[in-house]
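Encode chain A's predicted structure.
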Amino acid sequence: REIESTVTSRLEVTIKFLQDMIQAPSVNPPGDYSDIHEVVVSRLDNSDWNTETVWAPDELLKQHEHKYPRPNVVSTVAEGSGITIVLNAHLDTVPIDDTEWTYDPFGGTIDGRFVYGRGSKDSKGRVAAYTLASEVLMEISELPGDPTIQLALTADEETGSQAGLKYLLENEYLDCDYAIVEGHIDKIGYAMPGRLRFMISVQG
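Encoded structure for chain A:
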């Protein structure tokens, strides 16, 4: 009941946060994160967490022909001696096809119980949900085992993550025991697979 009432008290602010993110387009390609980065960092700073932006280096941007900078936001919600849990969501979205939209894809329109717009589910909705969950658990002191909890809000998931999560992991900005990543809205997947691309040449 305490969790439910605390979530309810923060729901309006969380929905506004989601709308603000939707209204800050971050379509990738081309991957202009300037507006969404400002919205997210401002929101996390209000929670008084230890938040930093890890920028992918220029040489990596040149290697992948990225026109715009790639920010990765890492926010430490709680820091303890127990396990480390990372909640990972991405800040970019796929491009839009205007002919397939009934609502403004960058409007964050509320109609009934739903918020409509590019990223409302994948993955700005997760950014909002992770932020809400972290705030609620901190407020009611329901973090068992003295854990470290981090939000990793990353770039370029839609284009391979080389300047996003992959860069953070390879350069040891993240080191966790467990990670919660994107999945489905109606079920929980354990040990979800990644992605491997390869080419096979066959002669004959």
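The first strand starts at residue 50 and ends at 55.
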